[in-house]
């Protein structure tokens, strides 16, 4: 349990600003079965329409998933003094309620870890994180290569090579959203408990897995929020800002958030596949058709990461990198 005094709890609750989608017209979250070749043809459409999809038959061993969740639950259940030995995050380490350095807060505690195998992790995490991340990265690269195939790109590894590069700037995050003592009273008053505020992911691709507690929501094009039913044996994939730029806006980086359940603990683990810091990010010339204009200025991943790090979660991080196209 995260212990805070009652007056401070108020900052984690917000009035619902945008209505949730009408339950009678809920669209289906795209489902991709990696064991079925015909399912792969739906990947591009999922990235274009949602920027988000669910993956089954993913090839990540359940034993890796279960071991990591077990260690995560143990870590977050340990005394605060033990957890704080690994914080505050700079940028890696343990954090509690404060997200980033620009005033964002959420009803969450977390571990942010470097995804490189030789990185420093809390005890009992090293082996299980390495096994998990290696397997999840393999899946992410397979998805990126299928996308390249479906888009008829000459280089099948045009996206995946950025994750496989030894200098890949990928990170791994484990989030814990604990129960909240003030949850039910606030919910009756139409207030939502913010676990992690609305944002897009700046990297190329994000691979999310959580336990069977709900909370994740994605923003649809009309501005409504759609709740994503949890599934602890599947993965959810987010298109990141960098992939949106590399596809010149064909793929959409999905805005998402977590509303903490309040009564049940939620644990999620996310692999963020990023390019090397020096990598130049720009629309792929091989994708540009005819007189198609580039929608984005070229930037390095270091430049964009720095800009994102200095912004608020809900900011339009790509805004300052968009080109003004003359009409």
From TrEMBL:
Which domain of life does the protein's organism represent? Answer: Eukaryota
Pathway membership: Hormone biosynthesis; Plant hormone biosynthesis; gibberellin biosynthesis
Family, per entry? Belongs to the iron/ascorbate-dependent oxidoreductase family. GA2OX subfamily.
Name all Fe2OG dioxygenase domain ranges.
167-275
Q: What is this protein called?
A: gibberellin 2beta-dioxygenase
> What does the UniProt keyword field contain?
Dioxygenase, Iron, Metal-binding, Oxidoreductase
Q: What is the catalytic activity of this protein?
A: gibberellin A1 + 2-oxoglutarate + O2 = gibberellin A8 + succinate + CO2
| Gene3D superfamilies linked | B-lactam Antibiotic, Isopenicillin N Synthase, Chain
Enzyme Commission (EC) number: 1.14.11.13
| The keyword Metal-binding is assigned to this record | yes
Q: Which Pfam families match?
A: 2OG-FeII_Oxy, DIOX_N
């Amino acid at each position: 349990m995260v212990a805070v005094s009652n007056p401070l709890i108020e900052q984690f609750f917000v009035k619902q600003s945008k209505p949730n989608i009408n339950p009678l017209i809920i669209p289906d979250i795209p489902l991709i079965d990696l064991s079925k070749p015909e399912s792969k043809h739906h990947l591009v459409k999922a990235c274009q329409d949602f920027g988000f999809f669910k993956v089954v038959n993913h090839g990540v061993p359940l034993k890796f998933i279960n071991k990591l969740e077990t260690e995560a639950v143990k870590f977050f259940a340990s005394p605060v003094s033990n957890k704080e030995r690994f914080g505050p995050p700079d940028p890696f380490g343990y954090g509690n309620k404060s997200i980033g350095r620009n005033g964002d807060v959420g009803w969450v505690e977390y571990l942010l870890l470097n995804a490189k195998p030789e990185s420093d992790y809390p005890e009992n995490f090293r082996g299980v994180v390495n096994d998990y991340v290696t397997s999840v990265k393999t899946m992410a690269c397979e998805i990126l290569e299928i996308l390249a195939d479906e888009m008829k790109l000459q280089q099948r590894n045009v996206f995946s090579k950025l994750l496989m590069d030894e200098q890949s700037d990928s990170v791994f995050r484990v989030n814990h959203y604990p129960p909240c003592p003030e949850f039910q009273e606030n919910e009756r008053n139409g207030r939502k408990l913010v676990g992690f505020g609305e944002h897009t992911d700046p990297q190329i691709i994000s691979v999310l897995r959580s336990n069977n507690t709900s909370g994740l929501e994605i923003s649809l094009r009309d501005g409504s929020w759609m709740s994503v039913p949890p599934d602890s044996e599947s993965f959810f994939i987010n298109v990141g800002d960098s992939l949106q730029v590399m596809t010149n806006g064909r793929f959409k980086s999905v805005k998402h958030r977590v509303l903490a359940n309040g009564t049940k603990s939620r644990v999620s683990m996310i692999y963020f596949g990023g390019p090397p810091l020096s990598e130049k990010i720009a629309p792929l010339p091989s994708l540009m058709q005819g007189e198609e204009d580039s929608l984005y200025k070229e930037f390095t991943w270091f430049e964009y990461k720095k800009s994102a790090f200095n912004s608020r979660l809900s900011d339009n991080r790509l805004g300052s990198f968009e080109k003004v196209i003359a009409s």
